[in-house]
Amino acid sequence: MNYDVVIVGAGPAGIFTAIELIKNKSAKKIVIVEKGASVEKRKCPKSTTQKCVNCKPYCHITSGFSGAGAFSDGKLSLSYEVGGTLPELIGEQYAQELINYTDKIYLEFGADEHVEGLGNEEKKREIRKKAIQSGLKLVDCPIRHLGTEMAQQLYLRIEKWLVENGVELMLGYDCKDLIIEDDRCVGITVKNVSDKANPETTIYGNDIIVCAGRKGADWLEKNCEIHHIEHQPGTVDVGVRVEVRNEVMEEVNSVLYESKLIGYPQPFKN
């Protein structure tokens, strides 16, 4: 099997790679290889069993078209100050431009135009002042709230749009290995997850784009080690949930919808 572009993984990175190629009038033959199922076929049995049953051959929450985002509450943080280390890599201004650009694509596919957390500037100023006095930094982040069901509908529209525009989706295929020739990735080997009797299939491409995501991080690290590809792991945020009485956060939550307060307490400042 031969393609111009082979995309491994149908999470946000893989999806938006394909969208960009189509929007830029690319005539390239594109395939997206994904271990999980399409949006409409992703169903978690936990709603019936009331507990995780460790679905095989893959989890319907973490694997499938659009990744875990299809089952999240669909909140899009529209500030470069929220999220990973992208602003450090490309600069704060360019990161914000990319966020704004991506947000417009979500709107094109039917995202709610309402943005939470706008306005109330004077009240925000007071909260920011109190935060500074407490040794904290207030991150004022507008949020577009898709909602869980709306997120699934939106990603289903994207899935159908990609297919209508000539992108081939190989759903239910697990990428097993990268094919490296002369220090260049020229293809991948995949296996149908529901048919163990079938042998592995080889897919070649002029460009191989690996978008493994969090779920495929261990697989990607293992392949990098096998093929002597330089790689560096990113940081992982560890969250601790602290519940307080409503009176403590009521004012902040009513003004900011979803606030982020950053501090580096003594003695470790981490």
Strands of the biggest beta sheet: in what spatial order?
Answer: 6-2-1-9-8-7
Please give the number of β-strands.
Answer: 10
- The succession of helices and strands, N to C, reads EHEHEHHHEEHEEEEHHE
Residue runs with pLDDT of under 50 for 5 or more positions: none
Structural class call reads alpha/beta
Q: Distance between termini?
A: 49 Å
Net shape: globular
Share of residues in helices: 25-40%
Number of helices: 8
- Gyration radius over CA: 21 Å
Mean pLDDT: 90
Indicate the proportion of strand residues.
Answer: 15-25%
State the major sheet: 6 strands, mixed
Describe what this molecule looks like in 3D.
The chain has helices spanning 12-23, 46-49, 86-90, 92-108, 121-133, 148-164, 217-226, 246-256, and strands at residues 2-8, 30-34, 75-77, 137-139, 143-145, 168-171, 173-181, 184-192, 201-210, 260-262. The protein starts with a strand and ends in an 8-residue tail after the last strand. With 270 residues, it is an alpha/beta fold.
